Amino acid sequence: MKRIGCTLLLILFLTNAAIAQETEKSVDTTSFVAALRRGNIAGHLRYYFMATDNQQGLKDYYACARGAGMKFSTAWFYQFQLSCSGSGVLNIGGSSLYTPDRVTGQVSRYESGLFNIAKAPGKYRLLRMDELYLSYRNQHVLIHVGRQFIQTPFINKQDGRMNATAVEGLWTEWNMISKTRIQLGWFVGISPRSTDHWFSPGNGIGIYPSGINPDGTKSQYGKNINSNSVLLANISRSVGKYTTVRL
To answer: Measured between alpha carbons, how far is residue 106 from residues 48, 96, 114, 122, 166 in Å?
Structure first.
């Protein structure tokens, strides 16, 4: 966490120093260096406490997590923009989440999701470069290429823990038709929330505890789905002052 904090402070210092070198009389808007200097930095701090109070005779769990994230985006440069972000999470206290209950043999299901479920048990630290993408926009089209967050009914951030689900690929939006927005995405990688690893779309399904079938057996879709990419399309249209139809 100290390493993350030092990196974030260094980014802030270098950016402020670059901005300070500019004067109002001579602002360069024709070079990529100027786009870097006029870039924007945003960040967040997050704290999360979670506890499970089971019935008497079963093990209880609790955990406290803290984290931070920062994003830098250049200014728009000939209709292009470069953005990157990263985040980190630490466990600052709690019960032993991976000690099995003596009765059920199960470990913590919910609190462990605050940290890195893709690592070996007990490896709580979670560090990830969340985004690294290039954007292009004009009057009617917006395009993102790279690692990014998207928010759709099918694939979204699922931002209910310390870090969110990110995807890797191509995302486009069109608004060429009045009151209509068309979105199209093609993704070859996904990093689900509570992980720092990038999976193929097929391998990214089933890393969380799975449900059971009607006969009581455990579902086995984890590691049994073979998919190297996802094609996603959304069309939404306003059909009145208060109504929008989405397909």
So the answer is: 23, 12, 17, 15, 29
- Arithmetic mean of pLDDT over the chain: 87
182 pairs with which residues across the strands? 174, 235
b/e sequence 205-243, b meaning 16+ C-beta within 10 Å: bbbeeeeeeeeeeeeeeeeeeeeeebebebeeeeeeeee
Backbone angles phi, psi at 14, to 5 degrees: -65, -40
Looking at the chain, the whole-number percentage of residues with pLDDT higher than 90 is 63
Mean pLDDT score, 67-72 = 96
Burial of 97 (0-12, 13-18, 19+ CB in 10 A): buried
Q: Judge whether residue 70 has pLDDT over 80.
A: yes
Burial of 57 (0-12, 13-18, 19+ CB in 10 A): exposed
Of 71 and 1, which is predicted with more confidence? 71
Domains of the chain in start order, with CATH, are: 2-19+27-246 (2.40.160.10)
CA torsion 216-193-81-22 (nearest 10°) is: 170
Task: State the Cα–Cα distance between residues 177 and 148, nearest whole angstrom.
Answer: 26
Q: Say how far apart CA 202 and CA 221 lie, in whole Å.
A: 10
Q: Is the pTM of this model over 0.85?
A: no
Rounded CA separation 82/70 (Å) = 14
